[in-house]
Amino acid sequence: MRAAILAGGKSKRFGFGLNKLFYMIDGKPLIMHTIERLLQAKRIDKIFIVASEKNAGRLRDFGFTVLVDEFPAGPIGGVYTALSRGDVFIAGGDMPNIKPEFVDYLIEMFKVYRPIACVPRWSNGYIEPLHAVYSKAFRAVLREKISSGENMLNKAVREANPCYIQIETLPEAWKESFFNVNKKEDLRAFSRV
Fold first, then answer.
1. 24 phi and psi, to 5 degrees?
2. pLDDT top residue among 8 and 108
């Protein structure tokens, strides 16, 4: 299965006009930590990046296919663009602690149940749509939402009747996969994990 890394954000909370995905950590950009984790997943055979037009050129330097976001309307547009390539595992580019075994597990559940999407969900109902598997069929759902001005990925996922994976039942270490870097302070947490 392909993995798509969403890299279209503006990094507003990171500060100082920096794009957090290019921030160097242990000698490499943040996004490379995410890419390297996904490359370790046995069920991922190809990785590509979905980026804003502004970021696309610099991201191509990493040697991966880069698709320019067709609808720069947040994550919903990135997922929509990624699904032009078929079924896909989606991850945010700012998720450096992804557990390859967890990615493989989600893909395995997706292949067993063949839902429109396979999304981790916490017991309080909060979902993790940027660490999930989507079928190509979900692209039509997103097209309809975007066309009607509804740009909330969470809402689109919930209304599509996905397969939910209950997070609390998973190995504790896998929960680190959801950690993402929004602010510079988050980098300290990443270095401790």
1. -80, 125
2. 108
